[in-house]
């Protein structure tokens, strides 16, 4: 079996304390290794990979067998999500803000219903 890397980019909100997130990961990386059977060693945090439009993107990697790489990435993503969720770290999600012109107030509810019902 050839060794490979499972690479996971994980996004957190800008409002999160990066140092706290890093500390939570460091304190729990052995538990993550124990929970993900595909990992050959504890995952590593490589740092901030990108400052996105609505998130800070963090990169994590773990040594795995090449044949297990994609399953390991999915399992590692799950473990990171659960870990951060358990510690109140928020993952950003897209939100839609709808605004209307003030001279068109009378039809606002009707237009919103039309938009929703088109799906």
Question: How would you characterize the overall build of this protein?
Answer:
The chain has 119 residues and is of the alpha+beta class. The chain has helices at 18-35, 69-86, 108-117, and strands spanning 3-12, 44-51, 56-65. α1 crosses α2 (69-86). The protein is elongated and about 65 Å long.
Can I get a quick summary?
This protein has 119 residues and is an alpha+beta fold. It is built from three helices and three strands, in the order βαββαα. The protein is 39% helix and 24% strand.
What about the largest sheet? 3 strands, antiparallel
Structural class by SSE content:
alpha+beta
* Unreliable spans: none
Name the quaternary structure.
single chain
Radius of gyration: 20 Å
Query: Helix amount, in percent?
Result: 25-40%
β content, as a range?
15-25%
What is the residue-mean pLDDT, rounded to a whole number?
Answer: 90
Number of strands: 3
Judging from the principal axes of the Cα atoms, what is the shape? elongated
**Order of secondary-structure elements:** EHEEHH
Distance between the termini: 47 Å
Strand order of the largest sheet: 1-3-2
Annotation field: number of helices = 3
Descriptive labels:
39% helix, single chain, three-stranded antiparallel sheet, alpha+beta, 119 residues, 24% strand
Give me the secondary-structure topology.
Elements: E1 3-12, H1 18-35, E2 44-51, E3 56-65, H2 69-86, H3 108-117
Antiparallel strand pairs: 1-3, 2-3
Helix pairs in contact: 1-2
């Amino acid at each position: 079996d050839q060794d490979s890397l499972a690479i996971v980019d994980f996004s957190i909100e800008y409002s999160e304390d990066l140092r706290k997130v890093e500390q939570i990961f460091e304190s729990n990386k052995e538990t993550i290794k124990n929970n993900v059977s595909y990992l050959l060693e504890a995952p590593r945090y490589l740092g901030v990979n990108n400052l996105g439009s609505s998130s800070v993107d963090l990169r994590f990697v773990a040594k795995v067998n090449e044949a297990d790489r994609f399953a390991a990435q999915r399992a590692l993503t799950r473990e990171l999500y659960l870990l951060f969720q358990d510690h109140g770290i928020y993952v950003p999600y897209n939100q839609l803000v709808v605004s209307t012109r003030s001279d068109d107030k009378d039809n606002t509810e009707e237009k919103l219903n039309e938009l929703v019902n088109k799906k």
